[in-house]
């Protein structure tokens, strides 16, 4: 199998983020502490919002006016961060209609410009955030130092302010213990790899996010190149490890996957953790060819990822229309899972 | 629900057995030890076989000529016993074409006349063995004592020589710990209850066999009446316990059953023990109305019982056509289970 062709069964999504601050305004942490700075904070929101709205269909969320429920929903979709919610007296999010672009205002920095897309395209993802960056910098000057580059609230973002990250589905590397050895090597190359649910998270669902650790002393091109190379290497390793896994796993592996498939069809309650494990099994089954569907395996893997986003707590609450307690949530999740799997018309070899 | 109507979801089968010995021949254990008694043993086989063949379509299996494979198959179907196989130099089985009647010759006693039927009908089952008994006793006299009744090799069968037993599916009583308390009460009434796979067996598949312990000092009618009463009581208790189980079990019970259903559909290997547990779950699901099929639940429960007989080792070997090793057998079992469950078109509420 060509490694390039196999990205689809490994790479889930690409995300880029630029951190920027305006030269003529204090950093958000100062704005937040100073009761008289509310006006300045509001100015920043207004300026950025006006610029973006001229460009495209954006929606402004002033965090002080946003319900707890909506905030949770946006956070689950990775459109906003916990810090943005914490800064709600002065913070805002400006989100494109298709939810691919999200600009957080007055989070840790004045601006956090984010772009998200399915699949792998780091250049495109960088161009998108860079385009937004250009539009805004034409209006108000960014804090920039000729030696360090863009100035940020935290030194880890100093320089390019760029974080490029790719979400990878690495069941074979993860389950066969290869990730433990791979992470330190990536770290030496200025990259970091971590479980999907964020820093310090486990590896539920076999998702890993690769991103650049360093933003200083490297050009944007360098950063993108390094992340791209890491993704290529991990994909190649993963595909090779999947082959070994299939060859060595034999019927026990197939049985494990088949049981997860059956359990998703038959269970009447399931926790979020177990659901993630079972769905990862189905995805692995699709990737290994143990399970087939009417559509391409890669397409089905993507559909299962979308399904998992819909199953996050705030989404689940919105979907079900009512507030569910723990067991009701488990029951609702089980019902949705069975329906989703049934609708895929999967076939177990 | 009327208890009488619910027998079908509780009673699997009825079995009767008469132990008889001919007055003019030594007991089989003597025949076996005496090298010169082969002729006498052969005479018994010939006489019984000739009488039965006049009556109906019977097939004679002289155990000395029967392959190990066939013997295992007949034993799995409960048509012959381990003791009959052990006595192979002198023993034989005469089995009706529909396999409802099996007469073992020169087992522990000269004759063990057995009748097996699905469902509950102790009187019919007794009439059948009794009919065979009459035909044979017309030809040669049985060993009979006016005080003790029919004489047998082992005193536990002395008297009527009748054992009447009923196989019951008691998942609620078993899983809720009620059987442990019930067994001693039955014992005081001269009855015994034991796990399905025979003496000393566990309760895999939630099957229990109720039979009379005593054969002496009671008339045949008394024995049948006592077993019938015990079956009625256990059925009533089981139905009541199922109601409680459903009411208290809620979604956790349904989840357990649903997962077993899914696992049977999806697994790629399964041990005999796990299969028994999962199939018992499906049967319980049918009995509780958690699972429905195109046919009556009771009919499907019976079909699953038949399926389990086909999955016994010797049957499996005959079905698959080749000798399978442990893991291959688990794989074959999984394949058959998935097909059987699929063919039932079950619907999980």
3D structure, described in words:
The structure is a homodimer of 349-residue chains. Chain A is α+β, with helices and mostly antiparallel strands and 349 residues long. Helices cover 50% and strands 17% of the residues of chain A. In chain A, the strands form three sheets. Chain A has an eight-stranded antiparallel β-sheet. Chain A has a two-stranded antiparallel ribbon with strand order 6-7. In chain A, strand 4 and strand 5 form a beta hairpin. Chain A is globular and about 65 Å long. The model of chain A is unreliable at 198-202 (pLDDT under 50).
TL;DR of this structure?
With 349 residues, chain A is an alpha+beta fold. Helices cover 50% and strands 17% of the residues of chain A.
Architecture blueprint of SSEs:
Two copies of one chain form a homodimer.
Chain A: E1 11-20, H1 28-33, H2 38-55, E2 58-62, H3 68-76, H4 82-86, E3 92-96, E4 101-105, E5 111-118, H5 122-137, E6 144-145, E7 149-150, E8 162-169, H6 171-175, H7 178-188, E9 191-195, E10 207-212, H8 220-266, H9 272-288, E11 291-292, H10 297-310, H11 313-320, H12 326-343, E12 347-348
Antiparallel strand pairs in A: 1-5, 1-8, 2-3, 3-4, 4-5, 6-7, 8-10, 9-10, 11-12
